[in-house]
Amino acid sequence: MTGRARTTARGRARRREREEQEAPGVPRAPESAAVSEPAQWQRTPRPLREEGPVVRPRQPRGAEGTAQSRGVKEPGLEAGLQTLSLQERRIGGVFQDLVVNTRRDMMHVKNSKTGSEGEVVQLIANHFRVISHPQLPVFKYNVDYKPDVEAGNLRQILLNQHIRKFGECHIFDGNCLLLPQPLRERKVEWVSTTEDKKIVRIVVEFSKELVPTSPDCLRFYNILFRKTFKELNLKQIGRHYYTEKIPLTLERRGTSLEIWRGYVTSILQYENSITLCADVNHKLLRIETVYDFIIYLLKTYPIILTPFPPPKRWSYSFLQQHKEIITAMKQPLLVSQGRWKKGQTGTQRQPILLIPQLCYMTGLTDEIRKDYTSMKDLAAKTKLSPKERHNSLKGLMKSMKEEKVQALLQLWDFRFDSNLLSLQGRVLSNANIFQGRRMVQANACGEWAREVREVPLLSPVPLHSWLLLYSRNCSRQAMILKDHLQEVTAPMGITMRPAHMIEVDGHADSYTHILQKYTRSALQMVRISCLLVFEVICILPNDDKDRYDHIKKYLCTTFPIPSQCVVKRTIEKVQARTIITKIAQQMNCKMGGALWRVETNVQRTMFIGIDCFHDIVNRQKSIAGFVASTNAELTKWYSQCVFQATGEELVNELQTCLKAALDVWCENESSMPRSIIVYRDGVGDGQLQALLDQEAKQMSTYLKTISPNNFALAFIVVKKRINTRFFLKRGSYFENPRPGTVIDVELTRNEWYDFFIVSQSVREGTVTPTHYNVIYDTIGLSPDTVQRLTYCLCHMYYNLPGTIRVPAPCHYAHKLAYLVGQSIQEKPNRSLSTLLFYL
């Protein structure tokens, strides 16, 4: 689950939860042990709720998905969720999302959601079964500090002063205490003392009794497992723990880096069992504090900084939490406006003062990113092959056998299988791809560039009028580009006339001044399908963002023309001809042409992709990208942007977007589509109900107003940022699964109609699968149909003659939202809405 989706879904409470109280040990009413099924299943999903909360803020989260209590409902849970604060404490970092049972009303997958197509293969996943865990109820207590204590470590230290009263066997998350046995009293008050002799009162009050399989229990089990990392002396940075330092000195300007290798883990409930998902993680640190960087600036540039000694009261906090000592007492302070949180942008942020000596520089410098050798060295250290990843995870499980770790886990009767989870997958056949008069299939790596070389495009567009702008020091590169374009376009079937070549000064305004002059008078416009079609290519001396944004904004808003910007050094590369071939293909797509089509075996079906861009740096408005296919062959697309409040993920104007897309469809086809399949990217598991209540409901309601019975709708959530990995075992060797590998058993959820697809091949490291969750379906898509369709759409991204990680409409929506959010920051001109101008 992505971090941006988590923020609106839940947090950790700054004040204790207000839940219905019940005495520990008192017998309770019998509870269902399994998800109850309705007496009669209907073909259509349950009605979308008229009203409902977007998220339930109190639900804790896991690293990639959610745990479910198998239908066990905890007393007072609903009432408690409604009264909890949105401002919640984030200590420990292990959370779990609210599980919405989106499968129970889909009759066509009531009995099975497992497909059958494809070649069966045996896979290994980076999961370890939990073979033993607590079987008896446990007891949850709220913990309050008076006065309040912000530091998580200090809260733990103060509570541990009374460990004899509640025992070694306990789990504390900074806000709540979990015990295997109840305390003698419902509410107790203890007094603790800080190192500077200040008194802190701790109020511990009974909250509720939890069954071992409840979501809350799994959240605490994650906290328990993370404690084992502390026993192994791993270092915590952010939410994760790291064990191995890999020093790496880059030659580029002598930058020193440290790569820390660690683990990302989560204990969650899946189809048949609870498993521990473990993956290798890397943290890149520059061995340079902000204070060091400031000293460097003072020596290099004439900068005037005002010293501001940190207040004495800070020394206590740092000594207590981090054992850090400030040595440079005269250093300027860093002012942060506080962390940006979605849904809370209207609240006033209090500035946070940071001490440069205690802050380290993060990320890579531009010089490092541009240096091929440096990036290659980094990749060699961080991109682990399947075998290396497998061995590292086996080493993690071996370390769990250490005596101090076992002593901690045995307190709660926790044991893990020492072997990685084995399961079956299926490899789907590659889609049939049609280009020109040839039908081909992707090779074993999911690519077909070689198979269609020198083959005409499916729908070439003549390039009769085009303008080539270049700066004064790029004249040679301009000639190379022009000559190669003449060579590569002929085999594609593109007829191209000579370019109008104009030299400019190189600054941003010089490009737009020329464009203003030539776009209206000097060029002959060619009218195709009522659109003014010609191309502008700009060769840029470097990758200066301001120049690029200035040009793109003018050509996408003021005077809408398909455009291509190429950096000078790109044309100077050895593989320049290959690169220019791709430029020609992009030009064809941006002018309304098509490169190839894919055989989907479905008729009159519109495919829609939705994704959002959030500017977390400048905190500008969020951009939702909407892209829809507008013909049966999936070669024409309609796009629209929706500007929303900062951080807003759910889209509020989908009815307008859908109406416009259907209008364009009717211009291209003789009849309306019968089915609409939406691929929604960028949301987390905690927002599934919100998607049903808002986005799916908007589209469903609008379709009913057109024709109550003629439209069917499916809504599929796409999740890329997951920690699950799959390995194909061949003897003693491990390798990445082949493109088209589908997994719909073991690591899917009973509550969901979900599956994984490995849709691409990677040359370095371990491939990451994509998780798909069908949350709404009135079409009645069978598992084989939805899996095959999804994989076919991964062949339709026109920027690459190969398969990509997500379906093409989903990635088009991402590209559109990113371009508008990063560069244009205005709605593109409507005349571009039927062109792939954002490629």
From TrEMBL:
Keyword Transcription belongs to the record: no
Any matching Pfam family: Piwi
One example GO MF annotation: RNA binding
Domain of life, per lineage: Eukaryota
Keywords from the named record: RNA-binding, RNA-mediated gene silencing, Translation regulation
Boundaries of every Piwi domain copy: 535-825
Disordered: region residues: 1-76
GO biological process: regulation of translation; regulatory ncRNA-mediated gene silencing
Protein's UniProt keywords contain 4Fe-4S: no
Protein name as it appears in the record: Piwi like RNA-mediated silencing 3
Organism expressing this protein natively: Aotus nancymaae
